[in-house]
Fold this sequence. Notes:
This is S9 family peptidase. The chain is α+β, with helices and mostly antiparallel strands. The chain is built from twelve helices and 41 strands.
Amino acid sequence: MPPTAKKVPSERVHHGDTVIDPYAWLTVKDDPDTIAYLEAENAYTQQMTGHLKSLQETIFQEIKGRTLETDLSVPTRKGDWWYYSRTEEGKQYGIQCRLAADGDTPPELRAGEPLPGEQIMLDGNELAGDSDFFSLGTSSVSPDGTLLAYSVNFTGDERFTLRIKNLVTGQTLADEIPGIFYGGAWSADGTTFFYTTVDEAWRPYRVYRHTVGTPADQDVLVHEEEDERFWIGVGLTRSERYLILSAGSKITSEIRILEADDPTGEFRVVRPRETGVEYGIDHAGDHFLVLHNKNAENFELATAPIDDPGTWTPLITHREDTRLLDVDAFSGHTVVHFRRDGLTGIRILPAGGEPYEIPMPEPIYDVAPSGNPEFVTGRLRLGYTSMVTPPSVYDYDLRTRELILLKRKPVLGGYDPADYEQFREWATAPDGTRVPISIAVRKGTERPAPTVLYGYGSYEISVDPSFSVARLSLLDRGFVFAVAHIRGGGEMGRRWYEDGKFQKKKNTFTDFVACAEHLKATGWSSGVVARGGSAGGLLMGAVANLAPDAFAGVVAEVPFVDALNTILDPSLPLTVIEWDEWGDPLHDPDVYHYMKSYSPYENVGDRVYPPILAITSLNDTRVLYHEPAKWIARLREVAEGGPFLLKTEMGAGHGGRSGRYDSWREEAFVLSWILDTAKVTR
């Protein structure tokens, strides 16, 4: 029998409406009853999936068997060194290394071998020790290559401890700074490191300046962001000439800059924040490049004088069909990353030459600049993948305009891309909008076939066509894998995002249902298992309420399913900043009633639901564990169908288990559940 969650009366009144939450007691993390309930749920899930142990092990071995466990990345040139990471068979975490540079050609890669003469900077396995969880928050080498700032976390709560290592002597310095957030930046001379800390709501809000060799309690507060809607971060321009202190909400930016050779100086504002205006900046010699959306929904690229960075002159004007994503400045050219027709692309602006775009070899793909730390270079490093092409690293020769393949991620076991196919379909949403779907399938698969449909649809995040080793365990068993590029994401430009947020959020859910129905109506799918995580978990809960008959099963990972209660509580991590994404139900009755009409926890009904698997982590600071715990409890109380399963990782955060073997086992668990739910048990 499944665990039964006790019901404790809890009522709140908002905008004249009474909110009844009988499972609010689960929000008390340190209550022994909460832990006991989560452990009971884990035991029940283990019992209900016990018959899948053999299949889980088979899939784990398939993932492991396709992965070159001892491998290394393509080295990236920075100053006098080639930097790269590598993995070793049997070890959970990566190893960061460097090799003295001799010329501009990357050293020859030898599968399974360290590079001769390498220096190990950080070994994640040594740092992790016997800890069940480990993650790096930052790893940043000083401009002169002598010091490494790195931060570690052992719980999953995304609060890290910063240390500094002397790469010349190999010694770790006495400097130790607890409680910092991701990222950080060095001054030009390597004497100073800037970092951020978070408030009680887990919002990065302060930037500090640390002088190497001094105690942490002497660090200087450089900036504090008082507006609870804004996060702050600190970094460097690619030229390393300027420090960048960025403040941003979901819809507004403000940037301060400081000469990197003057770390004790005062940051100056590039352009004061203006609600709805987002911008980013990079240094390009005698001017700045500014990417912004001032009167340009899909963004435009502008130049700005060094002494007047808030005055912007258009360089690439706004286009309705092209969303500008990012810009990188180099000494002799500019690189623009863009999105058009649901696909990414690269545009080159040579100094004094005609702009052009780099052609890609497949009709469906994802490409982005990757690993280009050198400001003066004749090559551009690119990362490329598709649904059938493993992650690939190219150098693009700017002189010959040739794409040079440096490495394609090995897939062992005889993988041949020619054995698989990828397609682009278009579903029609209830309002007539055409919604793209990316599909991967093994050639010869009989259709209709069981299908996994993945979706996200929030924050303008795009789920671009990409490769997955683990996915092959589904495709080789006759599955179709599809991604629904629904509104709320960014696949079709900024308007696509705007049409899936605030009072248009339900478009995200109806788009996803339309994609599921399209796959069945056009003969692709015999049954659809839906999968999504985080905000995509909200999607899972919403479509399960909206159209439970459309799905054979639902996998919701770290799911944001108690959206209304969370966004009503400004004391919770991240809530206030989220008001720019979902609206403010605390102060706006229209937003309150709209969110209440779709929030998954609020709308569980007395109807037949498909089997549902919810996965969460006790130490998640982004989507708290109690959201799926309450949701599963309410499903058991109110709904029919199922079964409804909850699995809580008791020692991890938002990203789940940290080691690669652990994460493979977690994926094998999910895939075995999907296969069993679709009645494919081989």
